[in-house]
């Protein structure tokens, strides 16, 4: 999940809209505002100028705080990007969980989850900081959670006869996640939809 123009637009909006609130009435409110504004400012600057051009001074100015204050919250640019990315990943997981829990059969909900995940992967194509962002404990935990709820949907679908039962749900979940990784390299949303169709075909029970 790397930085895209859509992410930058949203992050910039957050910076502009939250800047007047950086000096809130309580210390905890101020700290929370800084913790939100700084990662957004960092992500926006990296997308605009590139990772090497971003300095702590530029981030402080963008976020509307002093450089000394900045160091109280984050030691370096990498930690700010990690915080930004962790929040993005958490938001994506919440969105996928809502889709998983919506009404419908297990097969329908599984298809909706896979399509959404594939489109997320397609939007967040590689960038110069992709390798930096795609590491860390928060991603390992996110992958585990994602694998678990895809596994649970597959198990529910197998019980209902919608998903093949000759392969363990854990193995099918791994198959889905590895196959969906190809979505980031596809040229269009139509191609992404075809990929999901192929994945789903492999999950159906044999005649």
Can you offer a commentary on this structure?
By secondary structure, the chain is mostly helical. The chain folds into two domains: 5-75, no CATH class; 80-203, Tetracycline Repressor, domain 2 (Orthogonal Bundle). It has ten helices and no strands. 30% of the residues are buried. Residues 8-24 have low confidence and may be disordered.
Bin the helical content.
Answer: over 70%
Major sheet characteristics: none
Mean pLDDT: 82
The CATH class of the largest domain, by name, is: Mainly Alpha
- Number of domain units: 2
Shape: elongated
Enumerate the spans where pLDDT stays under 50 for 5 or more consecutive residues. 8-24
CATH topology of the largest domain: Tetracycline Repressor, domain 2
Distance between the termini: 38 Å
Q: Quick one: CATH superfamily of the largest domain?
A: Tetracycline Repressor, domain 2
Total number of β-strand segments?
Answer: 0
CATH architecture annotation name of the largest domain: Orthogonal Bundle
CA-atom Rg in angstroms = 20 Å
SS field, number of helical segments: 10
* Sheet/helix structural class: mainly alpha
The ordered string of helix (H) and strand (E) elements is HHHHHHHHHH
Estimated share of beta-strand residues? under 5%
């Amino acid at each position: 999940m790397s930085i895209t123009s859509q992410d930058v637009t949203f992050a910039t909006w957050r910076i502009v809209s939250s800047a007047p609130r950086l000096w809130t009435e309580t210390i905890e409110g101020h700290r929370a505002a800084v913790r939100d504004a700084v990662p957004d400012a960092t992500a926006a600057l990296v997308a605009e100028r590139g990772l090497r051009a971003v300095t702590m001074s530029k981030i402080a100015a963008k976020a509307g705080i002093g450089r000394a204050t900045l160091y109280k919250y984050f030691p370096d640019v990498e930690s700010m990007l990690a915080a930004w990315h962790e929040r993005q990943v958490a938001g994506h997981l919440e969105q996928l969980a809502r889709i998983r829990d919506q009404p419908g059969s297990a097969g329908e909900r599984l298809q909706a989850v896979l399509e959404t995940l594939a489109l997320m992967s397609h939007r967040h194509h590689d960038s110069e900081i992709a390798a930096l962002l795609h590491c860390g404990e928060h991603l390992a935990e996110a992958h585990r959670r994602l694998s678990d709820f895809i596994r649970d949907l597959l198990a529910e679908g197998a019980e209902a006869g919608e998903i093949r039962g000759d392969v363990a749900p854990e193995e099918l979940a791994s198959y889905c996640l590895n196959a969906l990784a190809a979505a980031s390299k596809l040229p269009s949303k139509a191609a992404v939809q075809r990929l999901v169709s192929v994945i789903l075909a492999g999950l159906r029970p044999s005649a």
